[in-house]
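Incident log, structure service

09:12 report received: a user says their structure output differs between two submissions of the same chain.
09:20 pulled the input from the user's history:
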Amino acid sequence: MEQRSGGDVRLTAGAEVRAVHVGPVDNVAYLVTCRRTREQLLVDAAAEPDALLELVRAGSPAGRLALVVTTHRHHDHVGALAEVVAATGAATAAGEDDADHLPVPVDRRLRHGDVVRVGEVALRVVHLRGHTPGSVALVLPGGGEGPDHVFTGDSLFPGGVGNTRGDAAAFASLLGDVTERLFGELADATVVHPGHGAPTTLGAERPHLPQWRERGW
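09:34 re-ran on a clean worker, output below:
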């Protein structure tokens, strides 16, 4: 499929954010590069390792991929994880309840409220239970140069929360966590970077929360 990456670079006070769309179901992998140290963090080594390594090089030819964070255990989000880790020596991180289901050993098991650092940039871990038990999002502060950014994996998209496969309890858990931990704590200007498709903002999605709750998916 056509790769779309590199040209759209979003800046915060401390970081650059790049994205590439990979694989047959339009997964999006995100590269966060510390603007000062050029150290890098990749969110979801989903597929097409060559495209992901090209993204890393575009982010900083002299930089170092320090960490790959996997938002959740599903196969379409880990398809290139082993290859990227082998090529770069990057460490791995994932939500504690999903870590044992990844195809590589996980160096760091993430819990709600943890902080993940890349160079001088700190991202906050948000545990969002429901799509999988250990799904996590990462919040990157804008730091005065624009809005905050949140990488949501498959827990929040334009138009709704992630698929909970008809499980009413899982849906209630996911919608509750998204409502409290994202919409309840972050500003409307926050940019949502989902695991598939196009970005959105919390402000664009907030009015639809009652509709999502009523329809049950």
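09:41 both user submissions now match this output. Likely a transient worker issue. Closing.
09:42 reviewer note: The radius of gyration is 16 Å. The chain is about 20% helix and 30% strand.
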